[in-house]
Amino acid sequence: MATFLYRLGRFAFRRRHFTALFWVALLALAGVGAAGAPAAGNTSFSIPGTEAQKAFDVLEERFPGASADGATARVVFKAPAGEKMTDADNKATVQKTVQELSGDSQVALVTDPYQGGGVSQDGAVAYASVSYKVSGMELEDSSRDALKAAAEGARDTGLTVEIGGDALQAVPETGAAEIIGIGVAAVVLVITFGSLIAAGLPLLTAIIGVGIGVASISALAATLELGSTTSILATMIGLAVGIDYALFIVSRYRAELAEGREREEAAGRAVGTAGSAVVFAGLTVVIALVGLSVVNIPMLTKMGIAAAGTVAIAVLIALTMVPALLGYAGGKVRPAGEKSKLLGGGRDKGADKAQRPNMGTRWASFVVRRPVAVLLLGVVGLGAAAVPAGSLELGLPDDGSQPTSTTQRRAYDLLSEGFGPGFNGPLVVVVDAKNSDDPQAVFQRTGDEIKGLDGVITVAPATPNEAGDTATITVIPDSKPSSVATEDLVHDIRDTGADIKADAGADILVTGATAMNIDVSQKLNDALVPYLTLVVGLAFLLLIVVFRSILVPLKAALGFLLSVLAALGAVVAVFQWGWLSGLMGVEETGPVMSMMPIFMVGVVFGLAMDYEVFLVTRMREAFVHGENPSQAVVTGFRYSARVVTAAAVIMMAVFSGFIGSSEAMVKMIGFGLAVAVLFDAFVVRMAIVPAVLALLGKKAWWLPKWLDRVLPNVDVEGEGLRTQDDRKDEDRELVRV
To answer: Which residue has the higher pLDDT, 38 or 656?
Structure first.
């Protein structure tokens, strides 16, 4: 592989015009496609095989035209102080609003609060439910505008009017913090390279790669039903790895220049060596992201594949466009150790200072001398950070987790105030009595038994279909949708339904947005262990090929588990317990997003293997060329610690930028990934890894002989390139003689 990538790097360097034009043309093509495509919609949490989805399917079949999966909205009205919604003027305003909403062609039904029991007991709050014929993704902007206009007209009369439901979904915004993250990355690159030009290359190539990936996602959003958060997450991951991959290749290029090689040769060798590590590091990230498809959640699968595509583009750009831009930069990218004149280059700093070991060398030497103490301190520290993870509660965000500045959150609070917290998450019980002898009796029995359950405030009368063989029963819990009590109630209703089915042969199914969220959470919990086994197993095999060792990949996997558990502990402390919630902009604490653990496993594992590959590859390279294990650890840090540190800081800066997002899911993922990179890069890879390798000694690089013969030699260390150089030197000596 190293030889192929070496040739690719030299080709891109020589044919820089063609290479740059290719990527710019691809960016332009993706941009044109994105410009002409509809905006991304909002994906649903529907999952094939769950009870909630089965109930939706029954509703579609037995209640034709009811649009069970159609968008919904609740227009919530609150009377001014001293007035009630039953006052004549306020009642007239509400009825006028209901009439205006009914005129929309996409509206299936609008309920009048005064006829459907939509007025609170104290008369202060009322609501009108709006059901649409189409899903939220298919809802036209004109329908959303009509909904907003109707609410605004009611506000003009002095009422407080807010809109909840999925018909109006706020477009996630990341804010200026994302730009700050890129700015921090730029500063780190300048400090690392001591050159503005060298620092600009990783940023430029990463932005181009993310631009191609995100534009492609936008172009395909309507066709593939990609959610609005898909492009944000692809940007988050693609930008981080894009900068890091280019950073490693530029750094190796400068090191090759420092050894006296010509620029084209240095570019080829940089791509052949560091590029090999980039390929395998990118492959681990892609495996982790594509592996999310085993969970069988369409939304998560699409997010993973879209992000994996962006990572693949980042790898290809690092292997081709980076050497092409290095060709354009020429002498402006200086050898390692030299700074540009603008940043103090060219000054005589003295021979003693130039020969002084760098910080990576000093740190590695310390760890090698005190491996047990460093190992214990690292493991105990991460273990302490992971303690809150034992209290992890999972759920999915609803309008109650939205910022208080949004109309959805204000509508949520008004409904809780007027009708109780459970009113924001009604449960829909579908009674399929087609195979029952007396459907009406089954409907009545189901309603009566649900009324007797704990945690139930209201059970609406059964509403049968025209055939009379299926009915829906709306149940209002006394707890908010994302609470554990509501989840327990759903399970209690399903247990009751199992008894009824045994006696009467009727299927009792619980659905609705709240039940669907609960089923999604359960699905994710059940899939976590199989997913972890698959991803870690495949990557373990891949790392065996890369490092030709059993213990090094095993150590890498165990260190990753420590990082993830510690990061989950930090997420629980902030988003569930409320520690530092004000600083992080968390307005509402509650259960951790149910997809967070499995998403963190996928993404963090890929990123953790990045650092493992880049750092340990240099150590193995030194060991293969004759250094003893302890010396190899120090050598690996001398060449890689500075770059890996810079890469980690950049990733943390990029991920932290998304903490400012208005979307709770994006905010939580940004924080979780930033903390995970902090733990993994600076505790696991910089402390635990060298300590373990120092303790293992030569055993770390042990591989059974039979396995050594079976495994392909991918030559990540670039041994094949060294052999070619040796032959060239021998030929020169023969010519001289």
So the answer is: 656
Maximum average pLDDT range among 122-131, 542-551, 620-629: 122-131
User: At 348, is the pLDDT very low, low, confident or very high (cuts 50, 70, 90)?
Assistant: very low
337: nearest Cα among 198, 500, 159: 198
CA 724 to chain centre: 43
* DSSP code for 434: T
Look at phi and psi of residue 40 and say left if phi exceeds 0, alpha if psi is from -120 to 50, else beta. Answer: beta
What pLDDT is recorded for position 355?
55
28: which residues sit within 8 A by CB, 6+ positions away?
A: none
Stated pTM of the model: 0.76
List pLDDT tens digits, range 60-111. Answer: 888 876 655 677 888 999 999 889 999 999 999 999 999 999 888 888 888 8
Q: What is the 3-state secondary structure (H, E, C) of 580-648?
A: CHHHHCCCCCCCEECCHHHHHHHHHHHHHHHHHHHHHHHHHHHHHCCCCHHHHHHHHHHHHHHHHHHHH
What angle in degrees, to the nearest 10, is found between the helix axes of 664-679 and 629-657?
160
Which residues does residue 160 pair with via DSSP β-bridges, in sequence order?
A: 78
Cα-Cα-Cα-Cα torsion 425, 426, 429, 430, nearest 10 degrees, comes to: -90
Higher-confidence residue of 208 and 590: namely: 208
Contact in structure between 92 and 126 (CB atoms under 8 Å): no
Mutual angle of helices 228-258 and 298-329, in 10-degree steps: 30
In this structure, what token pair is assigned to residue 58? 């029954």
Cα 663 from Cα 642, distance rounded (Å): 34
| DSSP secondary structure letters along 536-567 | HHHHHHHHHHHH--SHHHHHHHHHHHHHHHHH
Give residue 46's pLDDT: 57
Give the helix ranges, DSSP H, for 435-483. Answer: 439-451
The first and second tokens of residue 709, run together, are: 């013969």
| Phi, psi (rounded to 5 degrees) for 75 | -95, 110
Kindly state the greatest CA–CA separation across the chain: 111
Could you count the other beta carbons within 10 Å of the beta carbon of residue 185?
A: 28
In angstroms, the first-to-last Cα distance of the chain is: 34
Rounded CA-CA distance 720/3 in Å is: 7
Number of Cβ atoms within 10 Å of the Cβ of 449:
17
Per-residue pLDDT at 698 exceeds 80: yes
Pairing mode, strands 72-78 and 160-164? antiparallel
CA neighbor of 79 nearest in space, from 111, 117, 112, 120:
120
Mean pLDDT of the 384-393 span: 90
125-132 and 470-477 beta bridge pairing = unpaired
Question: Which of 182-191, 315-324, 340-349, 390-399 has the least mean pLDDT?
Answer: 340-349
Length of the chain as a residue count:
737
| pLDDT mean over 649-655 | 83
Confidence of residue 2 (pLDDT cuts 50, 70, 90): confident
Q: Which of 508, 471, 503, 506 is nearest to 492 (CA)?
A: 508
CB distance 416 to 76 below 8 Å: no
The C-alpha atoms of residue 113 and residue 347 are separated, in whole angstroms, by: 79
User: How far apart, in whole angstroms, are the C-alpha atoms of residue 100 and residue 140?
Assistant: 17
50/654 Cα distance (integer angstroms)? 36
Confirm if 716 and 277 have CB atoms less than 8 A apart: yes
List 429's β-bridge partners, or say none: 473, 510
Lookup result for tokens 């560091």: 274
Mean pLDDT of the chain: 82
Taking the C-alpha atoms of residue 130 and residue 75, their distance in angstroms, rounded to an integer, is 8
Task: Write the DSSP symbol of residue 38.
Answer: P
Measure the CA–CA gap between 480 and 425, rounded to whole angstroms.
Answer: 7
Which DSSP letter does residue 41 get?
B
